[in-house]
Amino acid sequence: MTFLMMIAALWLLFAPDRAAAADNSPHPRTLIQHAALIVTMDPKLGKGPLGTIIDGDVLFAGDTIVAVGKDLSVEAPGAAVVDAAGKIVLPGFVDLHNHLVQSVIRGGCHNRDLNGWLHECAWPAYNVLTPEDVYAAVRLSALDLMGTGVTTVVDWAGGLKFDLSREYVRALNESGLRFVYAPTPRKEEISALKQLHDELIRPNPLATLQLAGATGMQHLSKLTETVQLAREWGVRLNVHLLEHKKQREGEPIRSLEQSGGLALRGNLLVNHAIHLTDDEIALLAKHDVRIAHNPLSNMRLASGIMRLPDLHAAGLKVGLGLDGSTNDTSDMFNDMRAAVGLQRASTLRADVYPTVTDVLRMATLGGAEALDMADHIGSVTPGKKADLLVIDPATANFGPRFDWIGQLVFNAQPANVSFVFVNGVALKADGRFVRAHPTEVVQAAEAAAARVHKALAQTR
Ligand SMILES: [Zn+2]
């Protein structure tokens, strides 16, 4: 293929209007060619724990990776070829915890801890949101996530009125991201939630349902009902646990034991889990509970520093999360830096868990393992879904090449993410969003934020 043919093929493939019309169907065959480095996350495919390959190609057919290696060729005529010369290929990031709707209150209550932020910003805003606001905010957050290379997001959408959920899920479905939607199941709305699941979530192969719950003995009866429903529906329970020191007063671990939540084992995903004792870490490990670590949010809300090395030593599966507007940025590179930096700053050791290698794994395969999705995402492995990134390191913040693995964590920014593929479909190509027009998305979010501000002013 000549250079001009390649440019033409790229344009046809990734031009915004065509892609919007093409919807979710991936191209029949795509070859990412001549990547300077592929970080496969699969030690069987390459060197070291991250399975790195120097000068390699990745071939996917439709939504599935079919080959990873050197000098691959595409025989199918009209196959899409992405020239990755000088670039790095990575699996897409798994954001294990977020609240996409919270972008509508970005920067808010910036001198408050978790409780101040919840009572003065988050809950008041939740009370005045309209379906239109939710749609605008979730679209904005989804675009921001794509920008940083997140290909799978777990969205804890608890605490919202049910009449907001259709627009919430519509925005997620339209984003093209792989996602998990976790709403609060209220007794009187169970059949409506089931209908929402059947109509909007089940038909999307990229979408999964979890149920959001609240921990603490004050929520025990509600939590017990949610645990029962999670069992009945065969879905995960997703809760916040010991994010703020004061939450210990509610005996949240006891509430998880008594509600049957801990007995869900791998089907229980807990967020934060900062203020744990040794016995509690052992208990969570015994029950194979999955954990989302949100270092940027924990810094922003003065929540504390997770005992991540101890959780890892206990064998717990811990992934990384961005946690919504509470960190005010969707930057997975920044999140990885914070996860490494917090442990180094608190232990005065540069070899403490997670190392750079560990945190890259946490942000990709680690998140997939925590969701039991590692059979189809989390690494650049033949047979898995084509959720992957092409990173352009030739920028002032990233170059020059010295140790790219270190540079991915300490230097990269969302602007270095050149291509984002989810299920074989390009959502970002040559640094530009394929399916969405950022100006329009930002303007709609501005209008939503203005409405929220006005509604909040009227309630004060
Ligand atoms: Zn959260």
Record field, number of beta strands: 17
Q: How many DSSP H or I helices? A: 15
Mass-distribution shape: globular
Are any ligands bound, and if so which?
Answer: zinc ion
Helical proportion? 25-40%
Which structural category do the helix and sheet elements fall into? alpha/beta
N- to C-terminal separation? Answer: 64 Å
Tell me the β content. Answer: 15-25%
Rg is: 21 Å
Q: How would you sum up the major sheet?
A: 9 strands, mixed
Q: What do the pLDDT scores average to?
A: 93
Q: Name the poorly predicted regions.
A: 1-9, 15-22
Keywords:
9-stranded mixed sheet; alpha/beta; disordered N terminus; 460 residues; binds zinc ion; 8-stranded parallel sheet
Question: Can you put this structure into words, describing what you see?
Answer:
This protein has 460 residues and is an alpha/beta fold. Helix content is 39%, strand content 21%. It contains 15 helices and 17 strands. The protein has helices at residues 3-14, 16-22, 114-128, 131-148, 165-175, 190-201, 220-233, 252-259, 278-286, 295-300, 308-313, 332-347, 356-370, 404-410, 438-459; strands at 29-39, 52-61, 64-69, 80-83, 88-91, 93-98, 150-156, 178-182, 207-214, 236-241, 268-272, 290-293, 317-320, 388-391, 417-422, 425-429, 432-433. Strands 1, 2, 3, 4, 5, 14, 15, 16 and 17 form a 9-stranded mixed beta sheet that branches. Strand 11, helix 9 (278-286) and strand 12 form a beta-alpha-beta unit. The longest helix is centred in the last third of the chain and has 22 residues, at 438-459. It is globular, with a radius of gyration of 21 Å. It starts with a helix and ends with a helix. Mean pLDDT is 93; it is low at 1-9 and 15-22. The structure holds zinc ion (ZN). Zinc ion is lined by residues 97, 99, 156, 240, 271, 323. Residues 97, 99, 156, 240, 271, 323 line the site of zinc ion.
